[in-house]
From TrEMBL:
<dbReference type="Pfam" id="PF14588">
    <property type="entry name" value="YjgF_endoribonc"/>
</dbReference>
<dbReference type="InterPro" id="IPR013813">
    <property type="entry name" value="Endoribo_LPSP/chorism_mut-like"/>
</dbReference>
<feature type="domain" description="Endoribonuclease L-PSP/chorismate mutase-like">
    <location>
        <begin position="4"/>
        <end position="133"/>
    </location>
</feature>
<protein>
    <submittedName>
        <fullName>RidA family protein</fullName>
    </submittedName>
</protein>
<dbReference type="InterPro" id="IPR035959">
    <property type="entry name" value="RutC-like_sf"/>
</dbReference>
Amino acid sequence: MSIETKLAELGITLPEAPAPAANYVPYVISGNLLFVSGQISTAKGKLGADLAVEAGTEAARTCGLALLAQARAALGSLDRVKRVVKLGGFVNSTPEFTDQPEVVNGCSNLMVEVFGDKGRHARAAVSAPALPRGVAVEIEAIFEIE
């Protein structure tokens, strides 16, 4: 089954691939790897102060949708994704907040939903005292491609 068919079955519509907000490119292909620049959530605020874990998890999912949109823009088709190699998740949170892994699961779970076992990946989920434009979550990705 194609990934586009899988997305339709899951009721997932990808957004347009966001344009870069500064002096960088949205993705780079090097050999058989696709590096997608960090994608930010539309949700703003700080986990542990303004937002609950559930809101952060949803914010991470929106980052995942943007990552997939960038990958599709880079490759022409998500069917070229051989596997999700790594996600790097940054969570705008208070010093006391320790549920970064649960937040970033919003993106991780999406990758497994869409790609199955090929979506299982290495990952970092870290706290940040602030993120660009005050967003709640930013996530970058590395994909192995055909």
